[in-house]
Task: inverse folding
């Protein structure tokens, strides 16, 4: 029983970490669970520090894991050092500081998850630094249900996905408690956002804006339904998205869709202009807070380019956004921590009969340790997303012309 539970839990997180963060070139892994060797007793799950590459086991009664020092020579480490260099913070001490904060936060969330479910989270044999933690198998089971079983409880839990329009909130872009409000919504403590004047304006103008885009460009736009990320994969399908359309560029229509590399995503924005839409005008560049949504749509629908169309009563404009796997990898890691470290444990605790007050220990902070970096990456991507044409009262302007092959 213990071995099966350990295998399931480790396989769950290894798939999430290895398949997604490793494949997409994410900056670093934040948690990795492994089982002790079969001959070691008592059996336990261990949380490894980031960049740890060696795991040795002491013999005797203690049998406590011994960690090597944090290393930055791995692929993830080199990418993180590059990010620090680009942001003017290229130093090993800065990198170690980031790692330490994330490591401590991960351990704190885990201890809280165990404590609220009646499991003693104390390390079996604490190290002088307090950074090593052994988790009994019965405690680990409260963090993630047995995904392989496909229980109804887990199917119900998966219904509350994080969708593309909420990605910036999940990443901590906004001041105040909007990230915590998203958490409350996903665990059933708050009704889903029903909209405001700005969203109502956008909804009523969207259909006309799409027709305007089709008339100007001559491109076909296919409307698609909501799509689950990696549908059928229980480890990744907690994300979803619904674009305003999928584009087939007019000079590619004769190509079979299977080889059509100009099949893109359309995202339409109709700015409310702070309650004065009649005086609004297209933005000069894509707002950085829309970049998580844009990159999420490109990843979930597996497209390489997006036409980000901004429509106003006084004109419109299109920006071309290219897919960025590195950006997606970094934002995916932050959102994964919110999902697996805050939403899932709180949801399970509520289903076990815990009170609303009890689950407040899982309430996320207003932002993440990586929020500042993802915001800066969003600004950089926005600057690299050119306006390819602009329309004003029927007149066309071409600030930057991109030849469509």
Result:
């Amino acid at each position: 029983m213990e071995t099966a539970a350990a295998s399931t839990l480790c396989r769950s997180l290894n798939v999430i970490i290895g398949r997604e963060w490793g494949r997409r070139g994410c900056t670093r892994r934040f948690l990795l669970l492994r089982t002790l060797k079969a001959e070691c007793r008592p059996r336990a799950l261990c949380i490894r520090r980031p960049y740890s590459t060696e795991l040795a086991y002491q013999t005797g009664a203690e049998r406590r894991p011994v960690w090597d020092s944090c290393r930055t020579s791995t692929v993830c480490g080199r990418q993180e050092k590059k990010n620090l260099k680009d942001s003017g913070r290229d130093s090993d001490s800065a990198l170690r500081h980031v790692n330490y904060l994330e490591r401590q936060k991960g351990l704190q969330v885990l201890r809280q998850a165990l404590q609220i479910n009646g499991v003693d989270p104390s390390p079996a044999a604490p190290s002088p630094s307090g950074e090593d933690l052994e988790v009994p198998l019965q405690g680990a089971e409260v963090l993630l249900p047995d995904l392989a079983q496909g229980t109804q409880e887990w199917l119900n839990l998966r219904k509350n996905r994080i969708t593309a329009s909420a990605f910036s909130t999940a990443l901590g872009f906004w001041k105040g408690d909007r990230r915590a409000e998203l958490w409350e919504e996903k665990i059933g403590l708050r009704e889903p956002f029903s909209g405001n004047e700005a969203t109502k304006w956008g909804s009523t103008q969207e259909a006309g804006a799409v027709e305007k885009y089709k008339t100007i460009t001559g491109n076909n736009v296919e409307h698609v339904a909501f799509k689950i990320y990696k549908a059928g994969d229980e480890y990744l399908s907690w994300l979803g998205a619904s674009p305003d359309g999928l584009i087939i560029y007019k000079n590619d229509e004769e190509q079979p869709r299977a080889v059509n590399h100009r099949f893109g995503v359309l995202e339409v924005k109709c700015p409310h202009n702070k309650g004065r839409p009649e005086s609004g005008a297209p933005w000069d560049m894509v707002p950085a807070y829309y970049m998580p949504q844009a990159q999420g749509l490109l990843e979930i629908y597996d497209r390489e380019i997006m036409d980000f169309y901004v429509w106003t009563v006084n004109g419109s404009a299109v920006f071309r956004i290219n897919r960025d796997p590195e950006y997606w990898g970094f934002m995916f890691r932050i959102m994964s921590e919110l999902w697996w470290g805050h939403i899932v444990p709180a949801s399970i605790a509520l289903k076990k009969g815990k009170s609303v007050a009890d689950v407040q220990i899982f309430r996320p902070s207003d932002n993440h340790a990586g929020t500042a970096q993802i915001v800066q990456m969003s600004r950089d991507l926005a600057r690299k997303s050119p306006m390819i044409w602009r329309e004003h009262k029927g007149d066309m302007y071409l600030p930057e012309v991109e030849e469509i092959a």
Q: What stands out?
A: The radius of gyration is 23 Å. The chain has eleven helices and 15 strands.
